[in-house]
Amino acid sequence: MADPNRIAIITGGARGIGRAIARKLAADGVDTVISDVAADAAEATAREMEKLGVRALAVRADVSQIGDVAALMKRTIQEFGTVDFLINNAGITRDNLSIRMSEAEWDAVLDVNLKGTFLCSQAAAREMMKRRFGRIVNIASVSGILGTAGQANYASSKAGIIALTKSMARELGSRNITVNAVAPGFILTEMTEKLPENVKEGYIAQIPLKRAGTPEDVADGVGFLISPAARYITGTVLNVSGGLLI
Fold this sequence. Notes:
Layout: E1 7-11, H1 16-27, E2 31-36, H2 39-51, E3 56-60, H3 66-80, E4 85-88, H4 103-131, E5 134-139, H5 143-146, H6 152-172, E6 177-184, H7 197-205, H8 215-225, E7 237-240
Parallel strand pairs: 1-2, 1-4, 2-3, 4-5, 5-6, 6-7
Helix pairs in contact: 1-2, 1-8, 3-4, 4-6
């Protein structure tokens, strides 16, 4: 269980895994900043968090833009005075075979997924260092470990997030700031639920636990990594994949 009365920023927090993380943290008494490019959805999620009894703020931000990231951090500090937890969840896909992938498809995914994680982590770390406390959790993917056909851009961005996690863990550990990653496997979200049944069945057949994961499965992993129970864990990738990487 996370420390209550802490402040968390969740990027891509309006829907899916991000919203499940927000619910998990709110249930633990953590005040939440919901950041997303979808302003209306972010606002709706923030209001949902308030009904769970915590303070919540919605901020529209494109994490690939340094100006938006600076404004997100400024609003958070103005509203709550600090940031204790950063959950880098914002991410996009632009799937295509690598021989057909356009430069725009490559750049869009790397900019949001990897550059966005870096920019947000950099901005949050500067605030956390002042207080010598912080928890950063990056949402990676098993694709960044195994690779995925048709997702060279996405898999590369997630592999980069894992390397960034380990590098920043080394840099920030002396300031009592942990940096970890969660690598989800096949998770049922609005995006994956649209896949054909035979495709979903093919994914599930490869999973030892024989079921798809849920956003709540990922959220529980995040909740652990920001909790006092994980105080001596940093630079780690927690695979939430039902055993896919065994």
